[in-house]
Give the backbone structure.
Amino acid sequence: MTNLSDESEEILERLWIIGKEKEEICTLKKLDLTENDDGLKELQNLKLINLKVGKLELTTTGLKEATNVIRRHRLAERLLTDIIDASKDFLEEAACKFEHGLRRGVDDNICVLLGHPRLCPHGKPIPRGKCCLDEIHQTPGIISKLSGMIAGQEGDVAHLQTKDSKKLQRMISMGILPGTRIKMIQTFPTYVFQLELSQVAVDKEIADEIYLRLINSRASKIEKKKGIWMPGRHRFRRGLR
């Protein structure tokens, strides 16, 4: 597909959100567009949209292209939040500008870098790409699931990826919050990590939902090989089982 103009990509993004995510009928009036808009003409010429009696719908090819636009935008938001630590007020405007530079291939590289995030910072799903389906991983990665860490590694919690409100509340009550420093102690049979003055244990299901911005990748040879935890003087807090 030829690179689209920013205006056309924004129209595709809005069509995808209204039609696929909200499941509503999309009209020129709802998009505040006219039939003479350049972006609209470009999409019609490329057969990415159909326009009938003021109603707009994505073609099969258009749906695929719009999904890619949404994916790039939400990955841009995730990158700006997790790596650059952009403020919420700045996030939307910056992501809109940044997404247009994430052409095919680059977005997959960022997705791998971030550990294949499922949700954007607003809790909306990020469409999966080929890299997600092929389970491509980067070693070492800047963003990693807790379950992907080895004993001795440290990281700051980047985001918690779960739609289960009760599970999220329990994680928060344990002090697992964005920005909190975690140090992995052992990875088997459960994941045990240092969290401030406490040691916390969680199972793999929970460890898969905690994403961290890694600080280092150093670990002793024994910890790397065996993932052994030697109880110290800190108290042990029961985790999520």
